[in-house]
Amino acid sequence: MAATTPEPAFWDALGWQPSHTQLDQLVELQGLLQSWNQRVNLTRLVDGDDFWVGQVFDSLWPLAGELQTPEVPQHWMDVGTGGGFPGLAIAIALPQAQVTLLDSVGRKTAAVEAMASRLGLADRVRVRTERIETTGRDRHFRGSFDRAVARAVAAAPVVAEYLVPLLKSDGQALLYRGQWTDTDAMPFNRALGLLKARLMEVQHRQLPGDRGTRHLLRVQPSGPCPRSYPRAVGTPSRDPLGG
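Predicted structure:
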């Protein structure tokens, strides 16, 4: 299918208006994603509103504050980027951001790296093929990011163990969730206590077109993350913190 563009009301709902260059990049990204998806199973959300709402809007709605200050240079990490979201959308929307996109599946990272290059983002986007437990223990990455994000990766306590070790002392982890309840919060807060972090805010939003409710958990360090986290590859998902 051909690439599309959303109506002006879409951007009004998002609270952000892309420049002509940014809109062109998003349109090109849709076309690239459609093309790559025929060769590599990246995502089902590539056409029409599946792309614009399910990918672009869902990636950017939690970033109201960051989108108001796009001139601020920040280092971002997108863990489990899959087909490149939310990381590529963030890189387009925040032209001063340096963004690292991480996934353990080489065919996906190869596609994402090629898309980033075609979009002219190669100087600001780094793609890494590795398990996050390994990256989180690497001194070049640990404690190095202003923002670490993950969307549709794992249960919240597991994602917290992935993201918190990456943060600077004043950094934030952004956990994209579908549903979120008080029952979910109990083990999550126990996990954050072990990681020396705290839950700052829970945001929620109805996606346009009746595409469901989304939640965003903002987490900030309360002290240095213990060196024992993240644990060995596979352990966080097998034995989540806070259980």
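Summary: The longest strand covers residues 167-177.
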